[in-house]
Amino acid sequence: MPRGNMANSSSGSNNGSSSSDSDSGAAASSGGGVESRPAVTVQLLQKLRGICARSAPWLWALWLLVVLALVYGLREPLMLVTLFLNTLTPKFFVALTGTSSLISGLILIFEWWYFRRYGTSFIEQMSVSHLRPLIGAAESSSPTPGFAFSSGDTEPSSQNLSAECKVWRNPLSLFRGAEYNRYTWVTGKQPLTYYDMNLSAQDHQTFFTCDTDCLRPSDAVMQKVWRERSPPARIKAAYHALELRNDCPTAYVLLAEEEATTISEAEKLLKQALKAGETAYKKSQQQRPQHETQHRRDTDVMLYIKRRLAMCARKLGRIREAAKLMRDIMKEFPLLSMLNIHENLLEALLQLQAYADVQAILAKYDDISLPKSAAICYTAALLKARAVSDRFSPETASKRGLSTAEMNAVEAIHRAVEFNPHVPKYLLEMKSLILPPEHILKRGDSEAVAYVFFHLQHWKRVEGALNLLYCTWEGTFRIIPYPLEKGHLFYPYPSCTETADRELLPAFHEVSVYPKKELPFFIHFTAGLCSFTAMLALLTHQFPELMGVVVKAFFGTLFAPFGFVVEKIESFMSSGLWHQLT
Question: How high does pLDDT run on average in the chain?
């Protein structure tokens, strides 16, 4: 609820309740003892916490004195323990150190496996999950009565988190039947995850359905089709919808996406869908006031079909035709820039090497008020690198320094790498590439895969561009030493990209993680403990007498301060004082 409405409603409730204050006074006075008990308990707990915080240094000092007194009183039993340790054989120490090494090695293996799979330490996670609530239970107590948090205070943070992890439709997504399924037939691997396909099903229900579908049998069938998981069942239902009405555009769309095994077949089905969609669009446009939702649905269907037809023309080599279709779509639907049709046009124009037109599109969409993408940032870097990359030499640049044009190109590369640091390894072919998913996470590995899959050829075509990228891209990380805390040109890098990318990308792909996570402390600790105890076991087994001397010297040095303190205490105290006290 907006804050103004919340304020009005709260003031209204206060005015309405003022007349009943006299009636509720008796009830409040009679039940006040019961209702105020939680508040009194909270106040008492806060006072106790304050007292404990003020007296903490004195309590620690008292505890230290108690420990010293106990050690002094139990000095004779401790001497017996020392005698017992002296009587132990080297075999016992070999068994002890060997067992310790084995246990710490098992913990190390488990910690390493857990970290590789989940990206965190198991021991740290258990400590945070179980120990922190016990330590901070009092701090997380409920607020005092009369003080309330407004819901508007938490809205910005939740909106920022949802915006960081928002998944977008891939503007260059492939055809399932003609491309994704062919990859599965050849390799036997599934390029799409269930999560990705589920998001596509939700998109199709949003684009291709409306409230009036139940009035038309064919649209009612297609409304159920988009919820169907089995591809053969969807294709069969699409044919059933065409039997009910032979000009059902969404049925042709589904067959083009999932049944067509080549791009040419998909284009033919999409042309039939376009013809049927134009008829439905004109009909709903005439009845627009009464059927607004149906007209909006028909508009979405037309936009989708025209865009996929332009992509078919691009894939079949008719690039100028594809660029013209995309420009027509952007003119016909200017308010739908959120669908990122300009990224399709950028890729087609780069293939035509129409760099002036590419620069014009970047000048329009590379704006601070518009959401960025890897295609925008890296295409801008490519154009600036194109001006200097053919004569760029790192040796020459180190001697004479960078020129103004070279500095602009390097800054553009740093800007692009800051936005999405996963792209350079794919462009430089340091990491294997896979088919792009149907949805991407901006600034994530999924967006990097989708961008490089189509734009790697454009970088290779510009002479020296990849060399310039290779020489300069790692300098970005020196500008941003702590990317999760503070950014340079963009917001800090979101910490949720790894989890979302693992859902979007197939399991056989090694997800790129940024920034690289350092090994947890407990992995270092268990590794050191395992190697140290193993070394002790080996040395004790090989040199038992020498290790016995080393152990006695170690414990003698360790307990020397304790013996010195005991001697000083005995020199100041009479010999029978302890017996008199006990």
Answer: 78
